[in-house]
Amino acid sequence: MNLRLIRQFLRAQTSSLICTGIDFAVTAALVKFAGLWYVIANIIGAVCGGAENCIINYNWAFKGTSQRKQTIFYRYVLVWFGSIFLNTAGTTLVANIMSHDGTPKAFGIVMEAKTLVAILVAIFWNFLMQKKYVYKK
What we know:
Blueprint (H helix, E strand, L loop, with lengths): L2 H30 L5 H24 L7 H30 L8 H28 L3
């Protein structure tokens, strides 16, 4: 495997972890302290984490692209909407499966589901789409 690709993957995953921390902190605060419905809180958290992820990835993980910032922004937003959809739908589905009555009321169930789905989406959607579409050379 190409050393440059490994370095890029590790940088992208580091960026993803940082921004997932932002996403999770916002989601957790909105659910636990503001009493917001977890689906809406998940979307707001994803928006906060995603905005930061775009900035970090542009400047660090996928640096050196010759594309205009405007082109990258539009492409990132398209991929980001896919990510928000996959994270929200996946979290909702997994949380409902994990709960006994099909309606997750426990904070822990929501956050466990969100963690599992976030890992899968980060690797199999975000990295691949950003590498091949958003920040392509």
